[in-house]
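Readers of this paper often ask what the protein records in our data store actually look like. The remainder of this section carries one protein's record, kept here as part of the documentation.

:::
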Amino acid sequence: MSDRPDPILSLRGIRKSYGPVEVLHGIDLDVRPGEVVALLGENGAGKSTLSNIVSGTVPASGGTMTWRGRPFAPASPREAIDAGMGMIHQELLLLPHLSIAENVFVGRYPKRAGRIDRRAMEARAHEGLARLGLEIPASRMVDGLSTANQQLIEIAKALTLDARLLILDEPTAALGGEETRRLFEQIDRLRDDGVGIVYISHRLEEIRRVADRIVVMRDGAKVQEFETGDIPVRTIVEAMVGRSLERMFPALPDPTDRVVLQVDGLTGANGRFADVSFDVHAGEILGIAGLVGAGRTELVRAIAGADSVARGRVLLDGRDITPRHPARAIAEGIVLVPEDRKQQGLVLDHSIAENIGYANRDAVARHGIVTAGRVRAFADAAINRFGVKGQGRQDAGELSGGNQQKVVIAKWLARNPRVVVLDEPTRGIDVGARSSIYEIIVGLAREGVAVIVVSSDLEEVLGVSNRIMVMAAGRQTGILDHADATDVAVMERATA
């Protein structure tokens, strides 16, 4: 221990209060040069609040911080960046109307003769993207890019800062295996260059690969510290939740022989997938696996009528209902829980009750008139049914990620759909909330609903699926029964 370098960042007794409520309780934390410290905990544990204090987004209410041996209390993110700190936020902060290069260098554009040097800016941005394997012109607008590609741009943005400390908040939440591997290669290089890294993730299987040390938070306090990253996931989870974790995935029910949904030779008008065929039985959970860019999201969006189809059919109970618009799919009983709950699933500055009511206007209207009382009553029933920790009058943006996802699920399941499609249902959600989402998914299958789950988390797709369809480069490469589905079998087909 004595041969360790002095910490580049030291926190002592950091506290944070909002009014009378204290949300951080005297946190001590050291980060040394060339060290990756994993900061773990459930949603609400205080990880993001602590990160925001370090990065200058919010001030601490008490305690001290030293940066490179000197007292430090950044009054703004700009001050932290200028001091050599960078942060990749869990929520994407890109400006869609600007180019990739402009987003990477926003607020610090390279200049020549008093004007923005676009050639230099795009060249440096392209270099950062190439390090992550993203071959997209840096001059392209961000608008329309996938969530995964936007996440890579956020990471590239941080890599161009030449920072001595990086805080990575859920950097792989939207990434597949290959993109995650490239990110880890960059983390290894940064570690070798003496950069200190704080790594926040709900993907606990990554921690053994990336972390040198683990700090666990719970309810605003630091509850445990491991001096190595080589800790069993079960041990980490039990430290996070404060109890023994017996089982993550519920037992899967046996599906019936009745085919509810049939996809026949479906090809997307956008060219992202072609000639996909499969069926889903009543009471079955079909997982869809594959690397980022395999066409999984585009496929399920087409099934739900959100994206156009070039050819092929979608059949419900043997009847061709190929939707050309989401309203047709919803009317037929097919609903989609999208991968980006904040941008596509919720109106964040509207209440929980309003969000649930928007998807169920036919149920909350009487003679064409919607009343606030009927919306509240309908929403309260959905909130209670799915265990949303919040009240109907609260804005959706005030909720944790897990509870926001429950609201998205609740608003669609209140329609009693025939087919439920969930795209990355636990993205950015802590381990405790994941378990309750899995219970909801399996509960749907027990009720006879046909369920499709798209996930980049291999353990997840293996744990909740009766069968798994694997996609690669826009084509299906196989369908595996639960008994035959292993991580090796899936990855072989995902990279075919």
